[in-house]
Design goal:
Helix content is 27%, strand content 33%. Strand 2 and strand 3 form a beta hairpin. The chain is elongated, with a radius of gyration of 24 Å. The two termini are 16 Å apart.
Length: 190
């Protein structure tokens, strides 16, 4: 399916959905938007690609953004991951570990991690694809974040962000466990 076909299908699906959620008849939406009833029918049946102006009028009449009206997703999707479904990805004999809390593939992978790093432990990472960004929030201890060979102290209560397309290390050089949450945004594959 081409991008234009996918856009046409998304617009058709979302226009029907939002019109239904608002309780508008075809005639009511046509009157509110200043767009003909026939045009709305063609759009909802994915038989036409309306102009940007028409799409904006419909979005305004429905009280949603044009982005929401054109969204490829099929509406709000919520994924709840219970504690027993969390995936443990890395651990050491000393008790350090990581847990992948949740992730998504929308516009490239986006992951949320929970880390426990015991004193003296570290985890090294190879460079990720260009455009990958990591966000870290330390809740206990002090993380030594080494990015491209340069160490950065991130104490409890502090956060850090960095482009992760270079080698990096998460290190606990202290004498108390480091607890942190990390989010990773990886760009979509081309």
């Amino acid at each position: 399916m081409s991008d234009l076909d996918q856009l046409t299908q998304s617009l058709a699906r979302n226009l029907k959905r939002w019109r239904g959620e608002r309780g508008y008849t075809l005639d009511a939406l046509a009157a509110r938007a200043g767009v003909s009833r026939g045009m709305i029918i063609q759009i909802e049946q994915a038989r036409t690609n309306p102009s940007v102006g028409t799409t904006v009028k419909l979005a305004d009449a429905l009280g949603v953004s044009i982005t929401t009206l054109l969204d490829y997703e099929q509406g709000p999707q919520v994924r709840v991951v219970s504690e027993d479904q969390v995936v443990r990805m890395w651990s050491t004999d000393a008790g350090s570990h990581t847990k992948l809390l949740v992730g998504t593939e929308v516009r490239g992978p986006f992951e949320l991690w929970d880390w426990l790093l015991m004193p003296g432990d570290e985890s090294a990472s190879d460079p990720h694809p260009s455009g990958t960004v990591e966000l870290i929030h330390v809740t206990a201890g002090e993380l030594t974040l080494v990015v491209d060979g340069a160490p950065h102290a991130v104490p409890a209560g502090s956060s850090a962000s960095f482009e992760a397309n270079v080698a990096h290390v998460y290190r606990n050089a202290g004498d108390v466990p480091v607890e942190m949450t990390m989010a990773v945004q990886i760009p979509p594959a081309n």
